Amino acid sequence: MTSERPNMRFIQGNEAIAEGALYAGLQFYAGYPITPSTEIAEILSRRLPEMGGTFIQMEDEIASLCTIIGASLTGLKVMTATSGPGFSLMQEAIGYAVMAEVPSVIVNVQRGGPSTGLPTAVAQGDVNQARWGTHGDHAIVTLTASNLQDVFLMTVAGFNMAEAFRTPVILLFDEVVAHMREKVVVPGPGEIEIFERLRTSVPEGTNYHPYLRREDGRLPMSDFGGVHRYNVTGLVHDMWGFPSTDSTIAYDLLHHLVDKLENRADSIARYKEYFTDDARVLLISYGSSARSALQMVVDRRKKGGKLGLLELQSLWPFPAETVREKCEGRTHILVVEMNMGQICHEVKKVVSRPERVFLANRFDGIFISPGDILRVLNMVQGKGV
Amino acid sequence: MPVKDYLRLRFLPHIWCPGCGHGIVMSGMIRAIEEIGLEKNEVVVVSGIGCSSRMAGYLDFHTMHTLHGRALAFATGVKLGRPDLTVIVPMGDGDALAIGGNHFIHAARRDIDLTAVIMNNRIYGMTGGQGSPMTPQGMRSTTAPRGIADAAFDLVELAKGAGASFVARTTTFHATELTRMIEKAIRHKGFSVVEVMSQCPTYYGRQNRLGNGVEMMKGFRDNTTSIGSKKREARPDLIERGIFVDEDRPVYSPEGLKAD
Asked: Residue B244 domain-assigned?
């Protein structure tokens, strides 16, 4: 059978994540089963070895993340995937990847929490955990998406950013996106730029400093097993990777870890706009809730309502400039999310008129509907419920 | 090569207390690596957290100082990423068997080709002398002033039961035997466990009136014996030293077992 678009697929969200990872060059996956992310491991257990990569099922999520960090240091592109409880277990090792600056991709398919919560139901309650789950001051990249084409694209972007910034990247999807089925066009090779690891050009026999930044702030790596031997640690460390308690080194290192991402928040920012030009009411949403937000905007537009949607695809670093700019001059800003206001709080912090920001949410395991959002809008506009 | 050529002199002095046994273990590990003839670039040392885990930084190999208890998980990633490299994991008893106990039994179950050198000083040294899963019942620690109620693990039995294909035990007193065992463990294809009874005079020795480092090492001489020794008939309390398990098995790979 022939097809005009042989690379057009009708697949599940978790499969789109797996396909995106393979497109981006995934070589090593370690994971532990957990609903609703398990299909990612199942798919990769078959696909990854076929493509010459390695799949291993570990004893828990802690080991899963530690294992991919070890594999990343041998020069491989790595990923693990989990959901809420497993993501909680990974927090210490996320901090290690931040501190040691190890490129790694961590998928969290969100489900209802806290604790075991609602294992099979949708939620977006891990937004702040993605940002602040591990201890200590740090910065992190977190990406998300509302449809499966974008899930694919954000997964590729996540791998690219992990390499570009030598950082763990959190792909924060949710149960609805992960379990729904939709059309995905898998791009041909070379259609999307893939970032390869920046490796040092320092020759054998010359001192290589694993944590000495170039002028552009980047740190070229050397694979374990290569000609440069160095130390990697979760302790505060100097340019050799040796532990240090020197306050100047500690100050400089923490600033570097935060600044390398926060100072590039604008270039990391990913978002989409729908009908925002003349919108008086701006909805801000992300992940699967953005689907209902968009439907509600389209429905109201048909009746003459001046509504628009800003769909965030990067949550951390929070795209503050974008949000501030897009919210200017709107009569109402409605943040649509499936938690108790985790992004709404961020929006209020950055806009000039926080009193105009309202929350339309659900956190009971039921997918938020356009009707749910409309009820809140009617209420805040004084039109009754 | 002299031992010092395997060390990062910039990193020294080390953090270990006078009389600590960990330096003897590090020296034994270096001599074993030299005996095998491994190039420095072929060796990765992955450690967790604790006094013994600081060893990774002192050694001039590819080194990784990771999270408390998780060294074997990180090492699994390194080994699967580069199966041609020799991966050695120095650990403490608390690191390997309390917080890292799950990773320990699963590394043994997989029989992945890593060498775990467990320095068993029966105490948490870095945090100042709290009881570990290897502290014998009744012995004192800063968190058990009346003596520890919990039973200790038998590390050799645990490793055997979990499936390790090489299991050995020695002490810092038996330095030559130590080097020979680590050498065999590194050469072994599969998960190798070497328990090295090591002394912590500062915290374990002082709290339990076991004397200084030298006296504690004499204790290792007097309270251990080779596997199958006749001495044990008269003194069944003697701890056995030697290689308990050394089995040739197919080499582990996550895609399935491969013949070596």
From this structure: no
